[in-house]
């Protein structure tokens, strides 16, 4: 790919994307420029993988074909205002939770090619899942190019934008829920006497393997669960505890609340820009 990418905001997600794309070999490190307001951040954080870093968003945007906005929703308006006039012919990808294409369109030139995307942190290890939606200015060829770029770090799905808040809650935020589950499984092992490092390894590998079974076996998770639960055995005793405490409802509510928050982020911000 011969395009140059500018990542604005080299925080957790921006730097993860930079590293994921370079590791995947789809872009050379010379094809990515990253910006952040705090230059010290660059030195502190080794994950920037030697890409060029600037603390000047405009300079970075001017030298790139694709602009990826990876700042918090709370500061995105400020950044959009700063770079807007330099984005006429650019593909602008925003990964900001809750920020709609309509909102981005109001802040950018009418010709801007806008993509709203929702990745998740496992892109760092090439196992991300990424949803993308586009505005009318993005051609089929351009969306294929972006899809191809992002496919180097995960599975990419082109979705209707009205699914984005839920996807933000499920796969965008989901790693956080899964890490809590892994940590709790490991704590359970430690509680019962396993060494911490062994317990964490077993917990993480159990989640990894179980997810692979769901994806590769073509079996419903309930059927896979039944394969683990012998009558009168150990697993069903554990499940009884989880069901008594409402594990399913708790997880469903977590997704619902996160999706509500994604919607709230956009509606609470108003859509008002100085051109
Ligand atoms: N973390 C995640 O798992 C995911 C995050 N996202 C989205 O990605 C975006 C970034 O999130 P995340 O990486 O977690 O947040 P971070 O706060 O870690 O990263 C944002 C970075 O942008 C910097 N920044 C702030 N203002 C500017 C500016 N004007 N110009 C350039 N850089 C600036 C921040 O610097 P400073 O800290 O000094 O303010 C920070 O380093 C958010 O919109 C979030 O919704 C999407 C999917 C998953
Ligand atoms: O918590 C957040 O707002 C971001 C968006 C998705 C995951 N983390």
UniProtKB/TrEMBL annotation:
| Localization (cell) | Cytoplasm
List this protein's GO terms for biological process: L-proline biosynthetic process
Positions binding NADPH in this chain are 57
Q: Which InterPro entries match?
A: 6-PGluconate_DH-like_C_sf (IPR008927), NAD(P)-bd_dom_sf (IPR036291), P5C_Rdtase_cat_N (IPR028939), P5CR_dimer (IPR029036), Pyrroline-COOH_reductase (IPR000304)
Q: What class of enzyme is it?
A: oxidoreductase
- The superkingdom listed in its UniProt entry is Bacteria
| A Pfam family hit | P5CR_dimer
Q: What is this protein called?
A: Pyrroline-5-carboxylate reductase
Please tell me the species this chain comes from: Defluviitoga tunisiensis
Q: What is the lineage of its organism?
A: Bacteria, Thermotogati, Thermotogota, Thermotogae, Petrotogales
Name of the gene encoding the protein in the UniProt record: proC
């Amino acid at each position: 790919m011969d395009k140059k990418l500018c990542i604005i905001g080299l925080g957790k997600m921006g730097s993860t994307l930079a590293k994921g794309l370079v590791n995947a070999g789809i872009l050379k490190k010379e094809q990515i420029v990253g910006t952040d307001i705090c230059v010290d951040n660059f030195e502190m954080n080794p994950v920037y993988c030697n890409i060029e870093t600037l603390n000047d968003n405009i300079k970075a945007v001017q030298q790139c074909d694709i602009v990826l906005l990876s700042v918090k929703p709370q500061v995105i308006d400020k950044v959009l205002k700063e770079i807007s006039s330099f984005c006429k012919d650019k593909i602008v990808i925003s990964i900001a939770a809750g920020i709609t294409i309509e909102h981005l369109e109001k802040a950018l030139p009418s010709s801007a090619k806008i993509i709203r995307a929702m990745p998740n942190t496992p892109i760092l290890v090439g196992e991300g899942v990424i949803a993308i939606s586009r505005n009318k200015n993005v051609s089929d060829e351009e969306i294929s190019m972006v899809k191809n770029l992002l496919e180097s770090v995960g599975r990419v799905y082109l979705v209707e934008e009205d699914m984005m808040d839920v996807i933000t809650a499920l796969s965008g935020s989901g790693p956080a829920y899964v890490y809590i589950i892994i940590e709790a499984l490991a704590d359970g092992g430690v509680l019962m006497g396993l060494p911490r490092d062994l317990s964490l390894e077993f917990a993480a590998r159990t989640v990894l393997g179980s997810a692979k079974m769901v994806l590769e076996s073509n079996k419903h998770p309930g059927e896979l669960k039944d394969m683990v639960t012998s009558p009168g055995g150990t697993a069903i005793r554990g499940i009884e505890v989880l069901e008594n405490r409402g594990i399913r409802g708790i997880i469903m509510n977590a997704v619902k609340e996160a999706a509500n928050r994604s919607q709230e982020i956009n509606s609470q911000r108003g859509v008002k820009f100085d051109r």
